[in-house]
Amino acid sequence: MSSDRESVPVSLPTELVERLDRLVDDGVFSSRSDALRYGARVVVREERRQRLHDQTDSDARE
């Protein structure tokens, strides 16, 4: 991953922030930012996996 970073302001529901804070307090993540970066990576990885799966299914049907 590149060391270049871009700040992305985001608004989240209070309950979600509280849950993130608990994860930070429990030592799962070092900060809110760390937790959100992890979540973003998971979303991107899952989306890529799903697209590859969909493409494979489409190719198999042809």
Can you give a write-up of this model?
- The protein is an all-alpha fold and 62 residues long.
- It has helices at 14-25, 32-61.
- The longest helix is centred in the C-terminal third of the chain and has 30 residues, at 32-61.
- It is elongated.
Question: Would you summarize the structure shown here?
Answer:
With 62 residues, this protein is mainly alpha-helical. It contains two helices and no strands.
Q: How many extended strands? A: 0
Largest sheet: none
End-to-end span in angstroms? 36 Å
Question: Roughly what is the average pLDDT, rounded to an integer?
Answer: 92
Question: What low-confidence regions span 5 or more consecutive residues with pLDDT below 50?
Answer: none
Identify the notable features of this structure and list them briefly.
single chain, 62 residues, mainly alpha, elongated
